[in-house]
Batch of 4 targets.
Target 1
Amino acid sequence: MLQIYSAGTKRATEIDLATGTLPAGAVWIDLVEPTREEEAFVERTLGVGVPTRDEMVEIEPSSRQYRDGEAIVVIASVVSGVDDSPITTPVSFVLMPTCLVTIRYARPKVFEVFGAHLERDANLCTGARMTLIHLLEAIVDRMADVLEQVGTEVDNISAQTFRRGASRTQRMTTAALSVLMVRIGHAHDLVAKSRISGVSLARLLSFLGAEFDAGTREHLDSLAKDVSSLTDHASYLSGNITFLLDAALGLINIEQNGVLKIFTVAATVLMPPTLIAGVYGMNFKILPELQWQYGYVYALVLMLASAALPYLWFRAKGWM
C-alpha cells in the first residue's frame, strides 16, 4: 500500500501508479507492505534505491545507516504487536531533500498514532526533516508507553506473588502459577524487544546527528537522551522480571514439595494401622483376641491411635 502525505494536508492520499507522478508538495511517502510495482514507482520518481526486505533485516551498521547520493537511508527496529505477540520489525527511513520515504512490512501502532496526530495538527508534516523528527518522537513516546505498561504489569505480578492476603497459608493453584509464568514471559519479551528497539534508535540518532545541521541536531540530542533513559529503565525492568521469574520457580518448587510432603505424611500415618490390620487379618485359628467380645473395637481403637500418634508428632515438630 502506498500512502502519500502532502504539506498542509491532514490525511493520506492514494495515487494511480499509471500516472507516474507524485502529488505536488508530497512530504511523506509511506510504503506499507509494498509491492514490487510500488517500490519501482518510488525509485523511478525520486531517483533513489529503496531498501528491500532482505536488506532491512541485516544487522551490520553499514547496512543500516548510509548515504545514497542526496538521500540518507537509516533503518530502525520498531516494536509491533504489543498486546498480542510482540515482535521487532525493521522500518526504513529514506530522507530526501524534499520528502521522506518510509518502508515497513508490519503495522506498528505508532504509525497509526502518528497519522491520528497529523489529522489534528497538519504542521507535523511541513518538511521532510521535521516530519522524520516528529515520527521518531512518536516512536520514542510509544516505546515509553510500552515500558510504562510493562512496569505496571511487573508491579501487579509482584503483588500477586508476594502479597496474597493476610493468610500465610494461602496457596496458589497450579493453574494460577501457569498464568503467572505466562505473564512474566510476556513482560520479559516486551522488555527485550524494547531494548532492541532502543539500541537501534540510539545508533540511528547518532548517525543523523552527524548529518543534520545545528538547528535540528538539538531535537536529535533530546531524543537520544530520552532513548538512553528508556534503555536504562528497560534494563531495570529486566532485572525485576528475572527476580520474579526466580521467585515464581521457587513457588512452584515449594508447591511441589508441599504435595510430596502430604503424600509422605499420609503414607507414614497409615503404615501402623495397616500393620495392625494385617496382623489381625491373618488366617490363623488361634489368635488371643479372636473370641474376645471387645476385640473388634479394640482393633479399631488401636489402629486410630497408631495413626493419630505420628500425626501429632509431625505437628509438634512443625513438619506440617
Note: The two ends are 66 Å apart (CA to CA).
Target 2
Amino acid sequence: MLRIGVFGVGHLGKFHLNNWKEIPGVELVGFYDPDDKTANEVSEKYQIPRFSDPDSLMDDCDAIDVVAPTNFHFDLCEKAIKKGKHVFVEKPLAHTMEEARQLVKLTAESGIKFQVGHVERFNPAFLSIKDIPLNPMFIEVHRLAQFNPRGTEVSVILDLMIHDIDIILSIVKSDIKNISASGVGVMTETPDIANVRIEFHNGCVANLTSSRISMKKMRKIRLFQKDSYIGIDFLNKKTEIIKLKEPQDSNVFAFDIETPNGKKTIAMASPVIPEVNAIKEELTAFKNAIVNNTRTAVSEMDGLMAMDVAHQILEKIGNNVIMQ
C-alpha cells in the first residue's frame, strides 16, 4: 500500500481526499492544515487523523499531496524531497521561478517521483483526442471565470491561464519565438484579465484570453491545422472535429462545399468522451508512476516550463497593467 498524506484540505483539498479514498492500493494516512475550523470539519467528515505538524505527517508517508496555497508549495515540497518522499503538488509548481528551479534541481538529485497538478491534461474532452495527430498552426483559447477570492494570491496568469499554457506546450513541439501580452487589474493588485499572443519558431501562433471577472464561464481551446479543426470544450466536456473527409471515414457526418480549388467533402465528428474523473485520473497516474517506476504524466520540468512562460507573460505585461 502506498501511504499518502494530504497538505491543505480547503476547497480543492477535499476533492483530493475524496478521490484518494477511492484509489486502490492507497492508504490515506492523514492530513495537515493549520486552520482549526477546516481541520476539525474534515476530521469529523472523513474520519482521518489530523497531524499537528508537517514533519510528523511526512515521516509517516511514502508520498505527499500538496493542495496548499502557492506560497507554501516550496517549503512543503523541499522538506518532502529531502526526506525522500514522492511529491504531487497543485499548479503552479511554486511561487517564484527561483523556487521552481530549486525544486527541479532537488528532484533530479533525489530520484523521487514528482508530479504537478495540471488537471486539464486529464480532462475527458482532451483525452478524447489523445490518438489524433496534432500539429496546429493556429490556436485560440478562452478561459473565463466568475470572480472568486480563492486563488487570488496569484495573478490570473498563474491561476487560470497556466492550464492552457501547459496544454499548448504539450501539443506544440517547438520553441517559443516571441510573446506579447496585455493585462488589467480590476479586483486585485495583479492582472485579473489578460490577452496573450505566443509565436513559435515552427510558425504556430496561439492567442490566449483569460479572465476571472467574467459574467459567464468558458474553458475552450480551438486548434486549426492543415485540413482540420478541433474544438475542445473543457467545461462541458465536448469535442468536435471538422476535417476534409478521408475515404475510410464512413461513420461521420459529411457534406460537400465548393471552394476555389474545386469541390471538397467536409466531415464532422464528435469523438467518444471517456467517462473519467480528471482529479482521480491524475492522482492515479501519480500513484502508478511511483509503483511502476515510470515518468510522471506531468513532470516537474513540465511544471517549470509552464511557469517560465507564465512569468515571461507577466514580465511582458509589466507596467502596462492598468489598476482600476
Note: The first helix runs from residue 11 to 20.
Target 3
Amino acid sequence: MEHYSTREPSAPSRRREIQARLRGKVWTFVTDRGVFAGAGIDPGTRALIEAMRIEPTDHVLDVGCGYGPIGLVAAHLATRGRVVLVDVNERAVQLAADNVRRQHLENVEVYGGDGTQPVRGLIFDVVVTNPPIRAGKTTLRRLLREIRDALRPGGRLYLVARTAQGAKTLAKDIGAAVGPVREVAQAAGYRVYEAVREDPER
C-alpha cells in the first residue's frame, strides 16, 4: 500500500469536504485521496490539537502537516504569531494551502519538502507533529534531531503517537534528542508528549 508520505500520490484525486469541531470551533477542510486521514480527523490528530499549548505570539512549525488541521488550529490560536506548515506530499501541500485560503488566515505559510528542510535556519517557539511512525526508527530519530535544531532553547515540541506502536519507547527518543519530555494527554489509544528543548549553554 502506498504510504501517505509519498511525494506524488498515485491514487486518483477525489476531493471532498469534511467537518470537525476542534478547540471549540467548527472547521471545514477540503481533503483528498493519497493524504493522511483524508476521510476525517483521526483520533491522534484530534488528541494533539486538544492538548497542544499555543500562545498568541508563538511562531509554530507543523511538520508533516497533511491537509493542515493541526497547523491551522495553531494559527487560529497564535493570533499575533506565525505558523509554517510543511509536508513532503505535494497533494497535501496543495490541500493545506487551499485550506489556509478557505479559512482566511493571514499568519500561515505552506511549503513542500522533507522534514524541516524547507525552513532550515529558522527558529520556532513550538513544533507540532503527528509523525510518520511507519517510516521507521531511523527516519523518526533523524526527524527529532531536525526538530530540536528548529526549536529555540525553551521551545516546545508536541508529538502524538499510538500506544500500540511504541509510544513509550518513542518518548525516550524524544527526551534524548530534544530535552525533558512529559505525557500531557491520553486518548483513544494515543499519547501526546510535550518536550522542552534544553538550553545548550547550560
Note: The helical segments are 43-51, 69-77, 90-103, 137-150, 167-177.
Target 4
Amino acid sequence: MDEILLLETVERYIKGEMTSQEKAFFEEIRKKDPAVDQLVVEHTFLFHELEKQADIKAYKHSLYEVENKLTEEGVIRKEQLKGKAKIIFLWKKYKRSIAVAASIAGLVSIVTTVLISSYNNNLGKSNITYLMGKIQMTERKVAQLDNKIKEDAKLKNPTNPNFRATGFLIDGKGFIITNAHVVNRMKTIYVENSKGEYFTAQAVYSDVNSDLAVLKITDTAYKTIYNLPYSINKSNSSLGEQIFTLGYPRNEIVYGEGYVSAKSGNEGDSTAYQISVSVNPGNSGGPVLNTKGEIIGIITSKNSTADGVVFATKSKNIYTLLESLKKSGDTLSIKIPNNAGLRGLEREKQVEKMEEFVFMVVGN
C-alpha cells in the first residue's frame, strides 16, 4: 500500500496537482533520495509516452472518421484502400518518434542496470552486512507525502533523516547504547521512543573495535527515567540459550526471537556471539535479551550470504567501553542498571515493559 501511495504522490507531482508548499517539500525529498528522483524521472517519461500514444490513437481515429465519411459520400471505395499500404504509411510517418522513444527507454534501462550492478559489486566485497537501514520513502510513512504532506512540512522532525538504527537506555538520564558504525554515518542525530516522541541527541564516545557508541539525549523536553527494569550481563551466555530482540527495521518496534548459535562472532571473534534470529536493516544497535530479561548483547551485523546468521557484540563490552570513557578523562556519570524487573515475567510482559527503553536512532 505504501508503494501505491508513493506512485499516486509522484503522479500528482507530474500532473501539477500539488500546492506550491507541497511541491517544494516533495522536490526537497527528491534531492535527498535518489530512488524517489529516479522514480519521478521514469514516470515522467512514461506519462509523456502515454500522452503521445493517446495523440496517435486520436489521430488514427480521425483518419478512420474521414475515411468512412469519404466512403459514404462515394469519393473513395473500400477496395482502393489496402491494409498493408496503410501500415507502411503510418510506419513512415511515426518511425522517428518510435525510434527516439525506444532509444530513451533503452538508455534508462542501461543506466539503471549499471548503477545497480555497481552497488551490488561494492556490497559483495564483504560477506558482512551492517544492519543500519537507509530510509526509503516507502518506509518513511509514505502517507505523509499525500494525506499529511502539508502537515509534515511543519513537523518537529525537519531533517528528513536518511538512516535508521536502534539503541537502548543504559542510564535513565538519557544515555543510550548503539553501534559505532551507526553514529559514524550521522552528522545530526535524533532518537524516537515507542510513543513517537523525538529528541535531539549527540554521540559522546564510540569504539570501532567493539562497534559500540554512547549517545546522550540533549533535548530539554526529555524527562529522566528511573529504575530501568533490566541488567547488563557481564558473563558469557550458553550455546543454545533462548534470546529475544527488539529493534526498528521499520517505523515501529519489531520483536524477534531465536537462540545463541555460537559463542564467538564472525571469523571467531571472541568479543561477539553468533545468534540465530530474523533481522533487517535498522536492527543495528538493538538489545539482545535472555529469558531472565538480562541484556546479553547488542546486534551489529549479519552474514549476507547465509540466512539467520547474525552477530551481536557481547554486553560485557559495554563495561569496557565505559571504562575507556573514564580513562579518556570524561566526567560523565553513567550508572548501568542492575535490576531484575523483567525476571520471571511472561514474554509478552517483558516486551511490554522493555519497549519504553528501546529507541529508534535516526539521522543524516
Note: Confidence is low (pLDDT under 50) at residues 110-125, 148-155.
